[in-house]
Every structure is written in C-alpha cells, then in structure tokens.
Amino acid sequence: MKRLYIPLILFLLLVLEGVALDFLPTTFFHAHLMVVPHWVLLFLICVAMFYERENVHIATFYAVLFGMLIDIVYTDVLGVYMFIYGVAVYIVRSLTKYLHANFYVAILFTILIVGIADTAIYIIYTVIGITDIQWDTYVIYRLSPSIIANIIFMCLLYPLVVKRLKVE
User: Fold this and answer.
1) Is residue 49 a part of any domain in this protein?
2) Is residue 29 one of the residues assigned to a domain?
3) Which residue, among 26, 31, 19, 34, has the nearest Cα to 125 in the 3D structure?
4) Which of 9, 90, 104, 129 is deepest in the core (most CB within 10 A)?
C-alpha cells in the first residue's frame, strides 16, 4: 500500500468515527451504554503490526497527527488523544517485535490498547474535571461496550487491510 493511502484511510476513519453511531438504530444499544469507536487507533494498530519496517515509526507519527486532529475536531482539551494514541501505537510497535503478527494478536492488541487508551482518557478527564463518572459505572457502561464494539470493528477491518499493508 502506498504511503498516500494510509493518511487518506485514516482521514476517512476520522470522519466516520464521529457519525457512525448516529446511523445505528437507537434500540441497538441499551439506553445507558456509551460506545466510543477508536477506529483510527485500530487502523494504526494494523499499520504498526504489518506495514512498518525496522526503525521506522510511521504509525507513531500518524498516531500523534491524527490524535491531534481528533482533539481538535471532537474534544475540548488539546493533546489528550494525541498523547494517548502516540503512546499506545508505540506500545504496539514495541510488542510486535516479540509477538507474531496475526489475527489473534491483532485482537489481543485491540483489547489491550483500547482498554489502556480509553482508561487513560477517562483518568485524564476525571483529573481535570471534565467527567465525574464513577469507576464502576465507567467500566460497565462505557469501557466494556467500547472494547466489544472495537473488537467487532477490528474483525471487519483486519481482512480488508492486512494483505495491502504487508511489506514484502
């Protein structure tokens, strides 16, 4: 996949991330559940696993760049998603050296990284006073549904991009 396609796909996912849940029927989700799509992060996980070569950190660069775009477009606090996405993709990049890149590892990274990223965002927003959700409520009504929804999206995304991202 040429380098031009990666930022275009990331930009498309950035736009779709904001409107995706509006197209689902309201009865699809329980009234109190809050699902947060991290589609940009999931695609960056795939880029970090399958596209990058040794000593090249394209995915980390795009994580910082598109994390900042998410901060600008969707949030009121600049730098939170930029920092969290950058660190999360760097963790994936570091762990990929020790784990074989396949579907099961991608699902494991989805659970691990979405869990870490969403929890870190929750903690930062709690510390600065943007949210006041209790921890148990957060885990039941936001973190768990978000992880499950992002696993489903990774199952759909993985077969579409893995062959195109692999560097021969």
Assistant:
1) yes
2) no
3) 34
4) 9
- Provide DSSP, 17-76: HHHGGGGS-GGGS-TT------HHHHHHHHHHHHT--TT--HHHHHHHHHHHHHHHHH-S
Cα–Cα distance between 21 and 36 in angstroms, integer? 9
Domain coverage including residue 64: 5-23+36-165
pLDDT in tens, 92-134: 999 998 998 899 999 999 999 999 999 999 999 999 999 999 9
Q: Is residue 41 part of a domain?
A: yes
Q: Find out whether 113 and 91 touch, Cβ atoms under 8 Å.
A: yes
Prediction pTM value: 0.92
Nearby residues of 126 by Cβ (< 8 Å), 6 or more positions away: 132, 133
Cβ neighbours, 10 Å, residue 16: 13
